[in-house]
Design goal:
A two-stranded antiparallel ribbon has the order 1-4. A two-stranded parallel ribbon has the order 2-3. The chain has a single domain, classed as 3-Layer(aba) Sandwich (Aldehyde Dehydrogenase, Chain A, domain 2). The mean pLDDT is about 80. The chain is an alpha+beta fold and about 100 residues long. The chain is about 25% helix and about 10% strand. It comes from Arthrobacter crystallopoietes BAB-32. This is NAD-dependent aldehyde dehydrogenase. It holds the Pfam family Aldedh. Keywords: Oxidoreductase.
């Protein structure tokens, strides 16, 4: 299934939530909902997901890289400067004119 899917799981400590999230085979996006911004930032920094939103969700803009971890996404990043690495190959050409 690919689409909007919500999984709501209970936990006692932030470390448990991080473990649960990181044990998933998917990692395209995650949202963190918390009244404590410091806890939310700790969890957001530890969750293995390509996009993490805190207390909401945003699609970002064209300069924000988008892609997933684990088996989510397509193995790279769309949008932003990181997309250039995905779609280009660097080449050096030396020319001597005489």
């Amino acid at each position: 299934i690919f689409g909007p899917v919500v999984a709501v799981l209970g936990f006692d400590k932030p470390e448990e939530a991080i473990r649960i999230a990181n044990e998933s085979e998917y990692g395209l996006a995650a949202t963190i909902w918390s009244r404590d911004i410091n806890t939310a930032l700790k969890v957001a920094g530890s969750v293995r997901a390509g996009t993490v939103a805190v207390n909401g969700y945003s699609e970002g803009d064209i300069t924000t890289p988008f892609g997933g971890f684990h088996t989510s996404g397509f193995g790279g990043r769309e949008k932003g400067l990181e997309a250039f690495d995905q779609y280009t190959e660097l080449k050096t050409v030396w020319i001597t004119l005489r």
